[in-house]
Design goal:
Elements (H helix, E strand, L loop, with lengths): L8 E6 L7 H14 L5 E6 L1 H4 L6 H18 L6 E5 L5 H10 L4 H5 L2 H7 L8 H15 L5 E3 L5 H17 L9 E3 L34 H10 L18 H13 L4 H8 L4 H27 L2 H30 L6
Parallel strand pairs: 1-2, 2-3, 4-5
Bound molecules: tryptophanyl-5'AMP (TYM).
Length: 340
């Protein structure tokens, strides 16, 4: 069989299930912006169908979807250059998701650590959607034949599953139809940690607001959270090796590196030897300088929700030009009789 070549295409998504954190920004959105350009077609998605795998108040879900869209645009995603959509408005995601429910195996899904973490001791009582979540995620990606998916470290296992689903589909139906998508997990901030506990991921669902920086936090709040961030008593090292076994120090240096578009080595060359009392104000100043314009622009965009809705409507029409033919072809492969 001759190998199919696929158009270089980027897809990624974020759940509109609460506010955006610095982790979402550095691990995902900022990198989405970097990939926008002549090398790739780029499609970025608010995954509202995924969000309802845990309970979402309807008013909050609509608000969070628009706010996430505002966050994408404020951070530099250009709706002319990229396709911006909310998942529910491109029905081929859910349609291909069903096919993939029939391709993925129970054993594969049971190994998903994110499901185990989210379900915890309550596994009998969570939604079936939470269990099937990664099959829909594979559909999000493969319904575009996306070749590259920028994500944070926590999504790695889901992207491996996406490749397993594509490979099993291609094998079972004896086709070379779905690409082997490349995860793009790069940079200093693929796993931004909690400001209160360097062993825990920064997350919008952490009960402690002090553990994270929200994209809507004002300058004083950002500075205060950084000032109070947990650290150790030692000075910063001059080389990355010296951050081993110092998770909180490493996290703050990683954040500084990602915000300033430099490497950890470059940052340590500048700040090595400084105490946290000196480094934290530098980090706070940098974070405020980078994040304040984004939160200001988000607030401006949120004042015009109709404009956001128009951008999403237009995005879904453009998206369906890609997804409808791919779904039609999938149905043909599977043997679904269609319209003549
Ligand atoms: P979600 O909504 O939990 O997170 C969105 C993106 O932000 C990244 N991220 C982080 N990166 C670094 N440090 C952190 N502390 C941090 N917290 C979150 C995540 O890795 C992710 O890239 N399943 C996905 C959404 C999804 C998706 C997709 C992604 C649905 N379909 C298809 C890619 C392709 C999720 O729940 O992300």
């Amino acid at each position: 069989m001759t190998k199919t070549t696929f158009t270089p295409r980027v897809f990624s998504g974020i759940q509109p299930s609460g506010g955006l954190t610095l982790g979402n920004y550095l691990g995902a959105i900022k990198r989405f912006v970097d990939m926008q350009g002549p090398d790739f077609e780029t499609i970025y998605c608010m995954v509202d169908l995924h969000a309802i795998s845990t309970w979402q108040d309807p008013t909050d879900l609509a608000h969070n979807t628009r706010e996430l869209c505002a966050g994408f645009i404020a951070a530099g995603i250009d709706p002319e250059k990229s396709i911006l959509i909310n998942q529910s408005q491109v029905p081929e995601h859910a349609q291909l998701g069903w096919i993939f429910n029939c391709v993925a195996r129970m054993g594969w899904m049971q190994r998903m650590t994110q499901f185990k973490d989210k379900a915890g001791k309550n596994a009998q009582n969570v939604s079936l959607g939470l269990f099937g979540y990664p099959a829909l995620m594979a559909a999000d990606i493969l319904v575009y034949h996306a070749t590259h998916v920028p994500v944070g470290e926590d999504q790695k296992q889901h992207l491996e599953l996406t490749r397993d689903i594509a490979a099993k589909f291609n094998h079972d139906y004896k086709v070379d139809f779905f690409p082997m998508t490349e995860p793009v997990i790069e940079g200093a901030a693929t796993r931004v940690m909690s400001l209160r506990d360097g062993s825990k991921k920064m997350s919008k669902s952490d009960p402690s607001d002090a553990s994270r920086i929200n994209m809507t936090d004002d300058a004083d709040t950002i500075a205060k959270k950084i000032r109070k961030a947990k650290t150790d008593p030692d000075a910063l090292p001059s080389e990355a090796d010296g951050l081993k076994d110092r998770p909180e120090a490493r996290n703050l240096v990683n954040i500084y590196a990602a915000l300033s578009d430099s490497s950890v080595d470059q940052v340590l060359a500048e700040v090595g030897g400084k105490q946290f009392g000196a480094f934290k104000p530098m980090l706070a100043e940098l974070a405020v300088a980078k994040l304040s314009p984004i939160s200001g622009e988000m607030a401006r965009l949120m004042a015009e929700p109709d404009e956001i809705d128009r951008i999403l409507s237009k995005g879904s029409l453009r998206a369906r030009e890609i997804t409808a033919p791919i779904l039609r072809k999938t149905y043909d492969i599977v043997g679904m009789v269609g319209p003549v």
